[in-house]
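Lay summary. Proteins are chains of building blocks that fold into shapes, and those shapes determine what they do. In this project we predict the shape from the chain. Here is one chain we studied, written as its sequence of building blocks.
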Amino acid sequence: MRINNLISFTYILFAAAIIAIGRIYDERLELLGINFSVFISGFFILLSCIMIISIRSIKLTSTRALFYMFLCIILFSPILWCFYDFIDYGIEKYLNFSILIIPLLLIILEKFSYNDINNFFNILIWFIVVLALVSFSIVQESNERLSVFGGGPIIFARWMLIGIFILFFTNKYKKRKLSWLLMCMFFVLSLAAGSKGPILALLMTFSIYFFLNFQKLIIKIFAIIIILFSFTQFIDNSFSDKLFRLGKTERLITNDNTSTNIRIQFIERSVELATCYPFGVGIGNWQAYCNKEKPYHLLKHEYPHNLVLEVLSELGFIGGILFLLVLCKVLYFTYFRMVFYSFSKDSFYPLLFYLQLFLIFTALFSGDLNDSRLLFVILAMSLIHKPLIKTD
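And here is the predicted shape, written in a compact code that computers can read:
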């Protein structure tokens, strides 16, 4: 029993590392001539094989079946490369997601329990704290958009805000004063990244939280207005002068429509591509075939910065519709369980529900399939058969 617990905890530790790294090989993690990403991913793959072999049966429900069907579409998507060619970016994205993430999702669905989920979020919050502490040494020396370990400003902001959700919706953390200080620190650092998408996703998610948790309509409206007003008007506060010196915080209130215009183009080009190729063009081929359709208006971006559009374009209408069904059904299932087990203070369903919303919103603003790996992990956790509540 102790050996099983040790293997399980070790696997969760490496799983958290894999979710943070997101790839089999990462050149940024090389030290003294040793690339630690290869060691981490290699050991994780070995542990995944051991865990998968120990699965005795697979429990299926309608929602789980849809989830597995979508993962199968991803696994068999290289068939499209036989017709539409392939590029290095597509191969890398496919291998990283298929070899690292899909086995993890299977193991979460069939093997994870309440204690495993608890250990996972404990490890994840420590990682986020370390990320935040490292960022302080960077933010004081640079006025560039804040990022750490080469992850990029949007990824960094997303991790900081995920930390807020873990601390706010986990009962044992919520009671501690230190947690509220950490939440404030995470929020300030997310502003320093200068990325509007994650901040907007945070505001949208907490607007839904207030709407669902306050009975009186006037309180709901007031809370939502306060959230939106505090974000748009915080520049009038005396704190703002110091805040704007952090990274690229001023980008959040700069009237620059460049990003918006580009994303509108992404939507238009993705819809056109899906119409021309209803069965998809294969993982990683969005840019190549968008440029093929309009060679006089070339795009330099490799993906549409919207997960739904990416799936629709690269995996076709079947993959896109199936993905939307999975998102809707898992959200409904998680919300139902959140309400049903509301008597339990240590239920993980509030965290999973609101984290799902946040990650879905952020996936609509930026990132590709592999960048959305935590969203798929949260979806899998929400579908664990045994209720994620603490029992005596």
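What the prediction tells us: Residues 307-340 form the longest helix (34 residues).
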